[in-house]
Amino acid sequence: MAQKNDQFALIALAVVGAILVGKKDPVPPPVDHIPGEEEGTPQGTQSFSAQFYSTTANALYALMFMDITEDEAAIIRTMLLMRTTRDVELLVQAFGTRRFFLETATGDLGAFLTRYLNADERHAINMGYARKGINYRF
């Protein structure tokens, strides 16, 4: 079991590292077309494996947990990997409820995003979701 946890930790670290390497603008510019996305994607469709959602949730938590990366763009890019409403629901479910850094308080993914991203950054996520037809807002 410990070996599996180590593997998941390494995968999460690799995802965070890849996101940090690709760091660009704090808020990604709007795009008219998401590569690989076709119009009319069924919103109830799961696009990824269960492990993907778990790994992505862990990577988001790592980016936000200590609030030292200040890489909001990486958080936004990671959130915009979701292709359907079902993907967002499964990511939220995989994130579950986690503890804020140096606090006893806990929160779900929405609470973490509200704490670590400003309104414009959350709006960038929501607009990206709207362009994909995703019916989920933070």
Share of residues in strands: under 5%
Output the number of helix runs.
Answer: 6
- What's the SSE pattern? HHHHEEHH
* Form type: globular
Strand order of the largest sheet: 1-2
Q: Compute the separation of the termini in Å.
A: 34 Å
Low-pLDDT stretches: 23-36
Strands, count:
2
Main beta sheet strand tally, sense and closure: 2 strands, antiparallel
Mean pLDDT across every amino acid position: 79
Helix content: 55-70%
The assigned structural class equals mainly alpha
Radius of gyration, Cα only, in angstroms?
15 Å
Description:
Strands 1-2 form a two-stranded antiparallel ribbon. With 138 residues, the protein is mainly α. Mean pLDDT is 79; it is low at 23-36. 56% of the residues lie in helices and 3% in strands.
Features:
138 residues; mainly alpha; two-stranded antiparallel ribbon; 6 helices; 2 strands; 56% helix; 3% strand; globular
Provide a brief overview of the structure.
The chain is mainly α. It has six helices and two strands, in the order ααααββαα.
Secondary structure topology:
Blueprint: H1 2-21, H2 50-65, H3 72-79, H4 85-95, E1 98-99, E2 106-107, H5 109-116, H6 119-132
Antiparallel strand pairs: 1-2
